[in-house]
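Allow me, if you will, to draw on your knowledge of protein folds for a short while. I have a record of one protein: its chain in single-letter code and its fold written as discrete structure tokens. The full record is reproduced below for your convenience:
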Amino acid sequence: MSPVEATFAMVETRYNGPEMTARKLIILLLSAALILTLFLTRTRSLKDSIDIEDEVTPAREQYLYISPFDSLFRLYADSVCDWKMLAAIAYVESKFDTAAASHMGAQGLMQIMPATYRHTLAKMGVTDTMAQNVELDIRVAVRYMDELSGLFSFINKEERINYILGSYNGGSNHVFDAMRIARKRGVNRFNWNSLTPILASLSEPEVYNDSVCKFGPFDATESLQYVRRVKRKYNEYRSLELTFRAAEKLMDNCKE
């Protein structure tokens, strides 16, 4: 066969595989775009976390990967906070560092104060109150948040998480002080945004000297920032999961 004949033979060759319809092409392009977005966003979200020695293999990548402790977060998550909220708390508290220790004495992945840790362990029936490991840290955090949820059970669930997070960081006593002052002033104490200015003023003598304020002065700056940071990180993780699921669904559609 001459070069010219070979060229014509190639031109006349026809593709006999499955038809690539416009719909399938669009789905493939969208899938690629979503997968790229997920990869770039996930890479950015993990930059500040600790280095993870073991690489994520394709076999493990069956669900959204946030931290080395995802399986424990998923195992112990409950109706008060889902696994992504636990991951957000751990990130803000310790950057997923199990050896972290704060200037106030909080320790571990979930940064719970030793007294609170031992008290909660006792309620859980763990007799060795000096025991501490990652799994126990998460279990104690979940149990403690459940107790805080019970304290604020009269607040609707959407708003309640703010009160739980604020109390997790700064203690429920000061949150209740702010709520008593809010009620006295006619401010909606069941709305976190309404309560925030009063919490922020608990360091002022004219506020903490009020007879309804039972636990003295409190600088709420860190606690208020903490609530915002955890919720922002949680919303980031939620967006990542939605993108991940959307990409999975598009890829499944391509197989049809």
Notes: Residues 116 and 144 are 8 Å apart (CA to CA). Confidence is low (pLDDT under 50) at residues 2-18, 42-61. The chain has eleven helices and no strands. Residues 221-254 form the longest helix (34 residues).
